[in-house]
Design brief:
Order of helices and strands: HHHHHHHHH
Strand content: under 5%
Radius of gyration: 19 Å
Keywords: Membrane, Transmembrane, Transmembrane helix
Distance between the termini: 16 Å
Helix content: over 70%
Shape: globular
Number of strands: 0
Pfam family, one: DUF1361
Structural class: mainly alpha
Organism: Hymenobacter metallilatus
Largest sheet: none
Protein name: DUF1361 domain-containing protein
Number of helices: 9
Number of domains: 1
Length: 231
């Protein structure tokens, strides 16, 4: 059965609202930490994290729209919106790699910058997991449990590959439109010559497994207090 605003139960709507409130509060903390740092040292060192958080919000917004839309609408837009979702999904776990920017800096305690980056990384990860949960549920309702987890696993592996492309080759989601030739060349090169790009597959597999284990843990934790009907 399709899930829509009209068919969502009151507990499901309440859970959705609670999730939005928690994510909103967590995002607000990250924004406050970034803005306060700017006022403290008059430097925009970590302002770029605001843009990264915005990019991480895009797949969450798309999956929320699909999860709350009517069944007829989802049937018409699921594939194109799903493709756009997959294109932007790596932006969520990508923020984890912003820990690379952590180093002692004058004027700000080291622990403050650590908390700032960790809060942004946490938000990126939680936005990604929440978004993937919505998409997995859509697949599961149509194709079954195995297909749902197969989709989630593939999405996380592809997102890890996307993280590599973004962090090490400096591509972003927009390059699919603005720089498709270079992007396609680098992807095909790594597919045809994997032995020459061991770092690519090391990052893809290691981060993919890490993200999958984390996602499975979060999903399991969410079911511990669920009733048999909810589980």
């Amino acid at each position: 059965m399709s899930m829509s605003i009209a068919t969502l139960s009151v507990p499901q709507l309440r859970q959705r609202l609670h999730l939005l409130l928690l994510l909103g509060a967590s995002l607000a903390l990250s924004v406050v930490l970034i803005v306060f740092r700017v006022f403290l040292v008059h430097k925009i060192t970590f302002v770029f994290l605001l843009w990264n958080l915005f990019l991480a919000l895009i797949p969450f917004g798309l999956s929320t729209m699909l999860g709350l839309s009517a069944g007829r609408l989802k049937a018409r837009v699921l594939l194109p919106v799903g493709a756009v979702w997959l294109l932007f999904f790596p932006n969520a776990p990508y923020i984890l790699t912003d820990l690379f920017h952590l180093e002692p800096r004058a004027g700000v305690p080291y622990w403050y910058d650590l908390a700032l980056i960790l809060s942004c990384a946490w938000n990126g990860l939680m936005l990604g997991y929440a978004s993937l949960t919505d998409m997995q549920q859509l697949v599961t309702r149509r194709l079954g449990w195995a297909a749902g987890w197969g989709f989630a696993t593939l999405a996380l592996l592809l997102s890890s590959f996307g993280v590599y492309l973004g962090r090490y080759l400096r591509f972003n989601s927009w390059d699919v439109v603005t720089n498709p030739v270079s992007l396609l060349y680098d992807i095909i090169s790594r597919l045809l010559h994997p032995a020459s790009h061991r770092g690519t597959w090391g990052v893809t597999l290691l981060y993919g497994v890490f993200l999958l284990l984390g996602y499975a843990t979060v999903r399991l934790l969410g079911r511990l207090d669920a009733t048999p009907e909810e589980a």
